[in-house]
Design brief:
187 residues; alpha/beta; 14% strand
Length: 187
């Protein structure tokens, strides 16, 4: 039930090196847990969260891999949109690692009721056996027909993103991604 505890247990599964805890890790976990609570708690307003930390602070592993996997363990019918700078980046950094996490023995020991559908082949879009879904896309890409309980945008802009592209992505975010959230959806 506690996301911070889950992160400490599962970080070794997703990290290439040893997990180093820190005050910022606990703070990120507490805030993300509030996001999860805001989606299922009908009294609370759905929460929006922005995390700004330097590279290497574990924000992507926590927010884009561990958080959706924890939420799907607790709510295997939830849907996620994970947005990165482009499709390949989103699949390599969000889709595949999160899918592999759900398939791990460690994850299954914690959340045995959340399993991937047997016909899952793509790392860019996969489903749970309880109608949950995870879709990885690049910023500005087509997400028509996709809905989400939670949308995660991580590294949507790069050093090479032009000012014109930034304007297009901002418009796509407002008119596309935000409209794809379910009524109690959060981002």
């Amino acid at each position: 039930d506690d996301f911070y505890t889950y992160v400490k247990l599962m970080a070794p599964v997703v990290l290439p090196e040893a997990f180093v805890d820190g005050v910022h890790i606990k703070l990120i976990c507490e805030e993300l847990q509030k996001v999860e609570e805001s989606v299922w708690n009908k009294v609370m307003q759905p929460k929006r969260l922005q995390i700004f930390l330097p590279p290497g602070s574990m924000k992507s592993k926590i927010a884009s891999n561990l958080f959706p996997s924890w939420c799907l363990g607790r709510h295997p019918n939830w849907c996620f949109l994970a947005i990165g700078s482009d499709f390949e980046f989103a699949v390599d950094n969000f889709g595949r690692p999160t899918k592999d996490l759900l398939d791990s023995d460690q994850y299954q020991a914690i959340f045995p009721g959340t399993t991937l559908k047997k016909d899952v082949q793509s790392a860019g879009r996969w489903d749970t056996t309880k109608k949950g879904r995870f879709v990885a896309r690049g910023a500005g890409q087509n997400i028509a027909g996709r809905r989400a309980h939670i949308a995660i945008v991580d590294d949507a802009l790069t050093e090479q993103t032009t000012d014109a592209d930034k304007r297009k992505i901002n418009t796509w975010y407002r008119k596309g991604l935000r409209t794809r959230l379910l009524p109690r959806g959060a981002e």
